[in-house]
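note to self — DONT lose this again. spent like an hour looking for the file last time. sequence + predicted structure for the chain T wanted, 551 res
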Amino acid sequence: METQRLLQFLALGMILLLIWSAWERDYGTRAPTEETAAQEERDQDSDVFVPDDLGEEDAPEAAERRPADVDDTDRDARSIRVTTDLLDLEINTRGGEISRVDLLQYAVSTRDDTPLRLMSDAPNELFIARAGLVTRNGSDGPGTRGIYRVDGDHFELSEGDDRIVVPLVWEGEDGLRVTKRYTFHRDSYLIDVEHIVENPAESDLRASQQVYLRRSADVGDGTSWFIYTYTGGVLHTPDNRYQKISFSDMESSALSQDVENGWLAMIQHYFLGAWIPPRDEVRRYWTADRGNNVFDFGMNTFWRTVPAGGEATFSSQLFVGPKEQDRLAAAADHLQLTVDYGWLDIISRPLFIALNWIHSVVGNWGWSIILLTLAIKLVFFPLSDKSYRSMARMRKLQPRMQQLKERYGDDRQALNQAMMKMYKEEKINPLGGCLPILIQIPVFIALYWVLLESVELRHADFMLWLNDLSSPDPFFVLPLLMGVSMFIQQKLNPAPIDPIQQKIMMTLPFVFTVFFAFFPAGLVLYWVVNNVLSIAQQYVITRRIERGEAK
């Protein structure tokens, strides 16, 4: 097969790999079914609380009730505002749920510096975090919708304080007292959530903590229609470190699985909410379809005994914020996997580590990408050098190849045999020129996911009009430069003998220019710099080969 034809297939293959990669990231992993079915058959009266015990009070329609449907307890509910150095959020006294979260360090866009709203209880953008305490043996607990009492309307992290504690209190008619305590820390998106149960009765009490995330599948993640990112559930277990549970999975079959040292999350592009249990504690993980395209993903403890006249504490942690990898890794084991680099994760993570280190030195993500490109080019220099020499020698043989074509005409078998004989005599590998592109394809795709998934590059400024390397170039300058550089590279390569192939190759720079116009500017910057370096290297080698200075 001729070199140029193989280059066409490689270019087409790269595009197909990107499309397949996006499909695989969404549909490649499915929720478990056999174990789910087995556990759903377990006795409802066992040592684990199941979410169905909540009954009608936990239906999603509560967020959409008409005024006539609101009872007295709804009127008693109010919102409490909590402000830290990173978060501005609201806690609803009905259930003590986190009903709104704004991220103070992340703007909506480069043109709108309003803090990005990650969570909201608005029906059209529903994404909330709930933590409830359910009891049995004759005492009614607050559940997930009980009304809590709290002293104050606004809690703010003061200058010099490292944390702020927000206590909410629920008291039952029989004297049962439940204190729901939120603890917020400075410079942290990790929130401690505790239920302290005080049992004044003369008999033991059984209690279970349930935490879950509720989200509408209709809520988008703010990305453009062209850029694909996964939005949905993620489950971590020791046996499966990163398992996607999409909304369609939740709709088709309910998850019910006992897990030790796991966590769950609802993720979207750049941001997530995640519930993290204490270490070495087994919990039941579950999903539920609440109707109206609303889904719950949660976990609950096994029933625990609160002794008569005693108390017990149930603890969980909620991470709500950006996918900053250092923070994620510190919050829970393997939580950084929610930065989903796809099937080339083994390449993407080292690339991000290198890119992040370069940025710590130069302080600019654009220059970091340029320096990383140069480093990649140096690593592959020996292979590139050998390949460019092979292509330069083939280019030098173009007149002889044209003579062979004229001699053999339409007899392609004889033409190919004559060309292979000439390659053997000149000690040329006709496929050698494809090696740099073949090697760069996985690196290209891996870096694509790094630049697409890493929140550290969100709204990253470079220079002039390039003020967001995670978004397409608004003026298409970089895609045009990429197309021009690709065209120049083609002129340095040996041209195909077949006129049809020549026309196809001439259209590739235009096709790739259009294709790259929708890619993140940081990725196009990498490709432009890579092409420029390749052109410089190839030009020098080609001229030396043509002058007979190198072999």
